[in-house]
Amino acid sequence: MSDHQLPSGPFHMGMRIYKTGLAALICLLFSRGLGGYPFFAVVAALICMKPTFEDSLKVGLNRVLGTIIGGFVGMGILAGVTALGLDQGDLVYDVLVALGVMFLIKLIALINRAPAAVITCVTFCSILLMPVGQASIVQYSLMRILDTLLGVFVALLINELLPKYRLSAQEAADLETKLEAQIEARVTETMDETMADDLRRAEAGQERDKPDKDQ
Fold it and tell me: How far apart are the first and last CA of the chain?
């Protein structure tokens, strides 16, 4: 067997699969322990888990940059619309979200970081379009940012510390394409579940506040 090939077999799992599963588990445990949103940490780890540490670092840096920019711009706009008394579903609110996305894409292009455009807008929209619940705007926004940074850090750490097989360029490209397709499908499904969970939290918070308002 070549040094550049993985053992084959119907039940064989390569080292990257084990590392990805371990990264997801660590992100779930840490994020929940910190009271965050595990979805964002796990997705960041899945996306950043590449065949080599160098590839993971490249993707991770773009994701960190996009998360920070999108997160802080989202935090600022959320504070502004809250001060103006605008709610999700208002036409002005929706227009501001769309303008924010356009602004962020242009900003990322100006600093020559095109690969970070998508995650920048995703982070921005996650802050503006998901219920805040009982958390403050700053707390809510920072948890979104920190969860993503946690996922990036865990992926980089595991990819560097755990042993790895050497893949040929074609094997690495094929594996990456397959994993990205699976991740994209799972992200869509999990985002729906996460939004439903946030809505339940927000509704529960509103129910707890009702007696105080009546008094």
Answer: 76
In the DSSP assignment, the letter for residue 162 is: S
Alpha-carbon gap, residue 22 to 24, rounded angstroms: 5
> Which of 45-59, 112-126, 147-161, 193-207 bottoms out in mean pLDDT, i.e. has the lowest?
193-207
Query: Interhelix angle for 38-48 vs 53-83, to 10°?
Result: 150
Q: Helix 91-110 and helix 117-129: axis angle, to 10°?
A: 160
Q: How confident is the model at residue 29 (pLDDT cuts 50, 70, 90)?
A: very high
153: its two tokens: 């850090």
CA atoms within 13 A on the CB side of 90: 11
Distance separating alpha carbons of residues 109 and 51, to the nearest angstrom: 27
Contact between 130 and 198 under an 8 Å Cβ cutoff? The reply is yes
Rg (CA), the chain: 20
Across the chain, mean pLDDT equals 79
Joined together, the tokens standing for residue 188 give: 């869509």
Look at residue 215 and give its three-state secondary structure.
coil
Q: Crossing angle, helix 169-214 and helix 15-33, to 10 degrees? A: 20
pTM for the model: 0.63
